[in-house]
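Extended Data, panel c. Modelled sequence:
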Amino acid sequence: MIRWPTITGALLACAFAANALAQATTLARPPLFFSETWKALPTPPDDHGAWPVTQGGVASPNLELGLHGTTAKEVQLVAVRGNADVYPLNLWTGTTTSPSAVSLRERNNFVDLSDPLAKIRWNVRSSGFHQVRPIVKLADGTWLVGDRATCPCADFNEVDVSIADVRWIRLDIDRVVAVGNWIERPDLSKVDEVGFADLLPGSGHGPGGYVNVGRFEVYGKPVKR
């Protein structure tokens, strides 16, 4: 005698298994879109081993640097000190006197960060209450800043920021100030620029208030401009 419930259950189990297998085989991490490690400038550094950061400090030839905020030109490119694993080449916000942000734009492509596995990976540290926050510029020119802050951390740490976990709020890029309400489900399929913001002014040389951003990577699918 045929036991229909048993057969039905087996068929359902097979269907669920096939669906799970299909999802597992189609899910893949997006590629590395860019990786920036910065580059020492040819001019002599100042007494603290640093330069005002410029386009010349960008190691990747296809990336364009953006500096944002009323004192963003005070963001410093700090030279490697001793062992690069301990103190890498990095951008430092300590001498700014207002909130500041830095962004990178790939010359030939937007980046699709709508993939659930898209992410930012950066090697960062901070002092005081300062935190490193992700920022993006959408294809329509809208700037957003994310709530997923990295740090405080006294040592350089490599941290992944999963874009799917980030909540976004509009960013006044000229002042580097968050404005308005949360933006629900922004269209991240064509992101023009990606970067970081320090929403507090720096405290100067010495501990107290700054962020350092070393290697900065973005994982997402390229989209031709």
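The radius of gyration is 21 Å. This feature is highlighted in the accompanying rendering.
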